[in-house]
Write a structure and sequence with these properties.
Elements: H1 2-22, H2 33-43, H3 62-76, H4 81-92, H5 107-133, H6 141-157
Helix pairs in contact: 2-3
Length: about 160
């Protein structure tokens, strides 16, 4: 029994040693930290097309990694941030921009939430008005008497 535990502990220690031996220090994506800062600044402006709610700087999706590499290559080729962003918009459309410009093709992105809010407020107002106009009808005399008896029975039972 003790021998089994010792084997298990030895196996865990061996696995940990193998893991430590294989571990390496993380290498920067670019040897030039200034270039890497520019890459990340541009990547913060672009939406991950896989995740859709993250920038490609924050995303770990394969497409985001590829787009960061592409940005790095374009910066090394001497392109500016504006040229790179224009290239991405031409390739993927305005949706790739994390903050798309307000224009006729993107008005729904910008105005949609406000439009939904207006619809929700209108529905709430209509519901409240309907409830006010649909006041409970007065009970007939026999219904009122039956309700009184039921309430009196309930009080006497409790």
């Amino acid at each position: 029994m003790v021998e089994r535990y010792l084997r298990a502990v030895l196996a865990l220690l061996l696995a940990g040693a193998v893991g430590l031996a294989a571990a390496q220090e993380a290498k920067p994506m670019a040897e030039d930290p200034v270039l890497e800062a520019k890459v990340m600044a541009i990547a913060e402006e672009l939406r991950c097309l896989v995740c859709q709610n993250e920038t490609i700087a924050a995303s770990h999706a394969d497409l985001a990694v590829d787009l960061r590499k592409q940005i790095r290559q374009k910066l090394q080729q001497g392109q500016t941030q504006a040229q790179i962003l224009d290239f991405m918009v031409q390739r993927y459309g305005d949706f790739v921009l994390y903050r798309p410009p307000v224009k006729s093709s993107t008005w729904l992105l910008w105005g949609g939430p406000f439009l939904l809010l207006a619809v929700a407020v209108a529905a709430l107002v209509l519901t409240i008005r309907r409830r006010r106009t649909l006041a409970p009808a007065a009970l007939h005399a026999d219904e009122a008497e039956r309700a009184r008896r039921l309430l009196a029975e309930e009080k006497s039972n409790s």
